Amino acid sequence: MAAVPTSPLFHLYVGTFTVAALACFASLTRLHQITDSDTRRGLWALLLTSGSWATAQVGFLVSPTPALKLGWYTLGLVVGLAAVGAWLYFCSAYTGRTYHHNPTYRRLAVGVYVVLVAVKITNPLHHEYFITTAVTTPFPHLSVATGPLHWTAMAFSYALAFVGYFMLLELFTQIDYDTRPLFALVGITGLPVVLDIIGYTTSYLIDITYEPLGVAVFAVGVAFAYIDQFDAVQLAGERDEPIIALDADNHIRDTNHAARTVFPTLNGAEGAQLEQALPHVAACLNSDDPILPVQQSDFTRYYRVTETPYGTVKSGLGQTIVLTDVTERERYREELERQNERLDQFASLVSHDLRNPLNVATGQFELLCEELSVAEENEHAVAVERAFDRMDDLIGQVLTLAREGRPVEQWDAVLLSSVATESWGMVETATADLRVADDVEFKADTARLQRLFENLFRNALDHGGPDVTVTVGVLPDREGFYVADDGPGIPLEDRDSVFEPGYTTREGGTGFGLAIVAEIVAAHGWTVQVTESDTGGARFEIFGIETVA
User: Fold this and answer.
1) In this predicted structure, what is the pLDDT of residue 35?
2) Per the structure, how many domains does the chain have?
3) Can you give the residue ranges of the Histidine kinase domain (predicted)?
4) Which of 14, 62, 428, 535 lies 20 to 30 A from 383 at CA?
5) What pairs with residue 307 in β-bridges?
């Protein structure tokens, strides 16, 4: 058996396994296009073990001595068994499961692998896995008669392999993708079992293991022929949203059930240009506004349209169109717009319909005082003038309250210490003192946040006196900040009322200062509460802010 056979059939066998091995190794260069690292790692291991298994078969065929042939054959059995583990790792990662990271499953897999490898390499002792016989037809080779342990191990391996197929099938079915390519690959992968049986029972094929060919076809098929579709399916499987898969020329390759439900015209639209089948979706992708309204019976839903390329941008394989339902958010935005419009109307009413008559009354009163020669110290004239001033002040506060109640739409990154210091400079603080205990950066409407601090500072000065000390700091146990003073504080029974419009304990006060604070807090989506400071004064805590990392 030292001479190398020259039979054409021998060269066909060697060439077939060689091509399978080279195809697996060449496919490794394509794996950078797979975006998910675990999926890429699993397919890399599957290609490597499949290529090594096919290489071992080549070594088994071309080795000149029986000992070398047995060595290559045993190595192929060991590597081929590892391909099952790589296959399950790939399926688990690809379908979004976590079995491949589970320590118990990993230890169990290693234990089973070690036991089966031990059975394979100890075959010379028990001969229950395979028996070899030197034969000369159709070319000189070692005929391998498989034993009961081989068929047991193969049945176990294929059972595990079908667990992986079930994972893929479940994912394909869940998102309603075409399963025909998957069944085609599965059929090709299972074909070597038929070849094994033919080789074992007839003389048409030599009696060796053909499984490396099927595994190689599947691995290469995923890496080359279907890597774009498998990538699209994985993207679709991560979402319940409508998915439209396009090729590199913007032709519709596939869609899921959700997409066909939203757009019935997609039924049978495979191969059509996106611009022809769904011009409004194509226009949305090319516009600055990615929100697409879709009329469904008497109900309008809104979708954010985004596109995700398969693999890398340079691969040119195509992309998926993902439609994310943002109906609730769009309704909220529309409600905000309507609310802002109502607030604008209210502010206009306050500014025009109340202030204008007040200005007329004030002017007429001044003319009346001049005509009647009323002295400036006349107590009645002074009371009327004071009432006019208070009404003007109240109108201004109500106008501010209406405007500050609008939900915040423009968010900026602000520094607590900077806003507090700037706001302090806008208030007549006399000999009062501001202390910033610590700092935090967060998102807010800068102008409104400054008014919040100004009102809290004025409240501290009004109730704590000109020598009050105000401290601004960060809440240690939650996302927020506080403004505290060393004044007389706010009684416990009054703390639920201080934010009500018109509530005041100071003579001449409007009662709108803290109400405006509450409106600014609510407009940001924050929460405010009143407690007692460390010195017995008032402490206002605002929490729920979004900090900037």
Assistant:
1) 67
2) 3
3) 349-542
4) 428
5) 321
Confidence at residue 311, expressed as pLDDT on a 0 to 100 scale: 44
What would the two tokens of residue 511 be? 């009662």
Q: Which of 308, 328, 348 is the endpoint of a domain?
A: 328
pLDDT 10s digits, 333-348: 777 677 767 766 666 6
Burial class (CB in 10 A: 0-12, 13-18, 19+), 58: buried
Is residue 286 domain-shared with residue 140, that is, in the same domain? Answer: no
Q: pLDDT digit string (tens) for 66-94? A: 889 899 989 998 998 998 898 889 888 87
Task: Answer yes or no: do 111 and 218 share one domain.
Answer: yes
Which residues are CB-neighbours of 188 under 8 A, at least 6 positions away? Answer: 214, 217, 218, 221
The answer to whether residues 464 and 317 belong to one domain is no
Looking up residue 438, the CATH number of its domain turns out to be 3.30.565.10
Low-confidence ranges of the chain (pLDDT < 50): 1-2, 226, 238, 311-316, 508
Nearest to 510 by CA among 356, 403, 390, 417: 390
The confidence score (pLDDT) of residue 473 equals 94
Which residues are CB-contacts of 375 (< 8 A; sequence separation ≥ 6)?
Answer: 381
Distance, in Å, from the CA atom of 9 to the CA atom of 12, rounded to the nearest integer, reads 5
Give residue 502's pLDDT. Answer: 55
Q: How far is CA 286 from the centre of its chain?
A: 23
Q: What is the DSSP string of 230-278?
A: HHHHHHHHT--S-EEEE-TTSBEEEE-HHHHHH-GGGTT-TTSBHHHH-
The pairing of beta strand 319-325 with beta strand 433-436: unpaired
Shortest CA distance to 172 belongs to which of 265, 220, 243?
A: 243
- For the chain, give percent helix, strand, coil, nearest 5: 60, 15, 25
The DSSP secondary structure of 376-401, one letter per residue, reads TT-HHHHHHHHHHHHHHHHHHHHHHH
Neighbours of 160 (CB within 10 A): 16
